[in-house]
Backbone:
């Protein structure tokens, strides 16, 4: 199968599409900009979702569900938010179709069924949720509200790419309400930490936590925190955002609470989200020219076992011998697939599990059985070894941990090797085209930011939260700066 | 809190709304016909979803995700399906808003951004999915396809009721493709069995499995199987449907496969779904005038513990004493909430857990501690007893099983007591207004079905799958019939 995959060096973008195709993750639908997430891709998304959901609940959040549609009058209430999303809104204007009088079997929109007020298909749910919170919040006793929802959202995009940018995508959006600014900021930062922990410990993807510049903030936010990861082509990918919304939505929807002294004040808000875009990040962080590579913690199948057999007797013998080990692995949380399909050759299966990024593949035939051996292949390094069958459970469990760690360390090494400090704008301009993260001083002005973008197509990805204060001068304007920012080309 | 609940006898419909409100399950949003599912309601839905998802996977299905939008030309391809849903379609016609030139801060639909082809917000996904399956299926080797999706759908309803009938609702829809008619029918029946098992063993809600009459079939189906449950007012509620779609969608979307001999044939299809409507069924099957009653298997909290204390020392003493038991319960899968909130009185907490249907409530104060006792209250019968604290784990576990069984048996008894055979149409017409299921002979014609509906507002709920053949004559027309059907007023 690897021969069907374009090499990364040749065409990174084509390679990305080939991986998605060969691993059967997703495909374009006939609906402009909307994708079909195929079962194997969706199984990975379910692993992502289940883990994040657990982490949200452990940090005190509950799930709920709010309407898909936002009436236009609610949508426009928070002006900046509305302005930010207006250009990409799918709008429902009618609620009925009727038979086309001119063509039998065809339907037309019924002009009689025009909505009095148009409905926007949610591009994000602050408006509909804060309009609801208004009814839920009277006093400090009603706070905090810590709610998350898993939902589909629609942002009309002209240029789409599977997982990275689609008109409809799946995401989660947390929407919290607080009695104080400090508590809301604490929540914003806490959820950024949850995202960073998930990215690093589960996706095995190192991230830089930072703040967005004003021009890159979420529409309607006072401050946007983000995690930025480096893909294998050196480009940055924003993997999650957590917004401190101040009192903007509370003011737009008139949501006030009385504090312990009975004084009325507007409620403080946060929102935070990650989406199916993480699937793109996962693919581009680890995969190689042979197919998808998955960190064990997010792999739907941890171990594929390919028996090498002729006839049912040999298959049965192998199966009987392996069953206790399979049971033991399963009992300790390892997902095992024993592939006894006799219509596919072992070599074909090897290639399939390689393409699908299954972390560990075992192969065993009659001779191995005789010798008490089994072949172990790890997907990340493609190393093969033969081990004693009796040790297989402990070996596989250790190996899964090792693969998880190795993928993270490899990605971290790559990121660090492709991240450098730069002080001269000329040098930056020469280097930035080859990709990579550049740590540079910036004077903090929108003008300089704009100039960098226009000159190089690179953007200020974030102002890192961690990292020492350092006096310096902006590489573009020469004005003073006290911290380096991360600049890169981005997805 | 019970005083805020209208009695069932007074006004069943109002009682239903009161239960939803007091148990904080859901509320109407400001978007016409769309509901907000609140955290506690959503937690119950998550329990429903998780269990069904497990059962779907155990029967070989995988999840995937297909687009929210259906282009009009795809939507109208299967004519009967299109005709069935055309009247209730939300239609997206534009993809952009712009600033209103006449009113600052307001937005209008940008007339320049009209879609070439309108998009229907999916009322069901057969069209979009079969248009995709066309690309996936060439040969018998590609079959069966056994896919499910969890999604939101929109059917524009003029009269809405929380959970029972809303413009947007959450559901799952299974869509399978098969190489033979027999296999597709087997799948249709298998999934009906899954639904029935879920309804009876998890929701504790007895159901009758049956076939819909032709007029009640899903638009585009050859046969619709259903499960019908009786609510406490004697009305029927259709809780799930499984459709044998024949080759209708394969023909509409030209989906053919080559069989083992290389012969081409259209693919056979099924689809099956349950929705947030199940929440309504759950509420109306078990709840009483004191609030929600939940079967333990679907309760987000199994046991609420209310400590009765003055000051932190007493609270700590109770907590320390109970902690080992809480740990033991938790370890055996029982969800325990220890409610140490000192801003609410015990009586208030008792009422809250009663209203929210928590199956078991424990209360313990300093005197109980001294005597080694704890008070146990069960929600279903409202019985209270005092037991030895040292036995609490075994007692609670047994009690949860007992409550689960008791709720089912109680509902079954009610259903059976309110189901009767009837042979005279006059008798039927006299009785049907008081609710209940009527087993009557029907001649199988649409005319008779229509007459019954017009005369009484009752409908043929299903032709039961189980139940003996029995010769008789139609109670309306006097024509011969070989089986009784279930007739009732319905939600």
Residues:
């Amino acid at each position: 199968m690897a021969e069907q995959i374009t090499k990364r060096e040749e065409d990174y973008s084509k390679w990305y599409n080939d991986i998605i195709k060969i691993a059967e993750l997703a495909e374009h639908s006939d609906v402009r900009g909307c994708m079909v997430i195929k079962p194997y891709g969706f199984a990975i998304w379910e692993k992502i979702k289940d883990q994040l959901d657990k982490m949200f609940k452990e940090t005190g959040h509950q799930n709920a569900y709010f309407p898909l549609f936002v009436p236009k009058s609610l949508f426009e209430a928070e002006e900046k938010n509305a302005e930010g999303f207006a250009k990409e809104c799918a709008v429902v204007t009618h609620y009925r179709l009727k038979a086309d009088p001119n063509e039998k079997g065809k339907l037309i929109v019924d002009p009689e069924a025009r909505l009095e007020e148009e409905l926007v298909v949610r591009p994000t749910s602050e408006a509909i949720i804060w309009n609801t919170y208004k009814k839920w919040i009277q006093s400090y006793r009603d706070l905090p509200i810590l709610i998350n929802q898993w939902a589909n959202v629609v942002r009309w995009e002209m240029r789409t790419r599977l997982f990275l940018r689609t008109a409809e995508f799946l995401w989660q959006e947390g929407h919290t309400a607080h009695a104080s600014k400090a508590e809301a900021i604490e929540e914003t930062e806490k959820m950024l930490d949850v995202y960073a922990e998930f990215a690093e410990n589960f996706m095995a993807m190192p991230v830089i936590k930072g703040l967005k510049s004003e021009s890159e903030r979420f529409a309607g936010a006072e401050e946007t925190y983000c995690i930025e990861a480096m893909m294998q082509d050196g480009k940055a990918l924003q993997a999650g955002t957590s917004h401190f919304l101040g009192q903007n939505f509370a003011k737009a929807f008139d949501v006030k609470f009385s504090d312990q002294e009975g004084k009325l004040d507007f409620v403080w808000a946060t929102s935070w989200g990650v989406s199916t875009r993480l699937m793109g990040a996962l693919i581009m962080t680890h995969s190689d020219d042979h197919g998808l590579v998955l960190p064990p913690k997010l792999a739907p199948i941890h171990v594929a076992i390919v028996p090498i057999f002729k006839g049912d007797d040999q298959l049965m013998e192998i199966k009987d011998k392996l069953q206790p080990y399979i049971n033991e692995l399963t009992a300790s949380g390892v997902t095992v697939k024993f592939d006894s399909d006799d219509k596919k050759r072992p070599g074909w299966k090897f290639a399939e599990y390689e393409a699908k990024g299954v972390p560990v593949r075992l192969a065993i035939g009659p001779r191995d059985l005789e010798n008490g051996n089994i072949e172990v292949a790890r997907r990340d390094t493609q190393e093969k070894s033969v081990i004693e069958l009796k040790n297989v459970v402990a070996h596989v469990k250790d190996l899964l941990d090792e693969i998880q760690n190795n993928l993270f360390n490899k990605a971290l090494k790559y990121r660090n090797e492709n991240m450098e400090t730069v002080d001269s704008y000329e040098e930056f301009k020469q280097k930035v085209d080859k990709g990579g993260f550049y740590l540079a001083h910036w004077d903090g002005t929108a003008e300089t930011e704009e100039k960098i973008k226009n000159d190089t197509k690179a953007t200020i990805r974030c102002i890192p939260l961690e990292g020492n204060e350092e006096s310096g001068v902006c590489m573009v304007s020469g004005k003073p700066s006290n911290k380096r920012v991360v600049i890169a080309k981005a997805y």
User: Anything to note?
Assistant: Chain A touches chain B through 67 residues (CB under 8 Å). The radius of gyration of chain A is 26 Å. The longest strand of chain A covers residues 168-178.
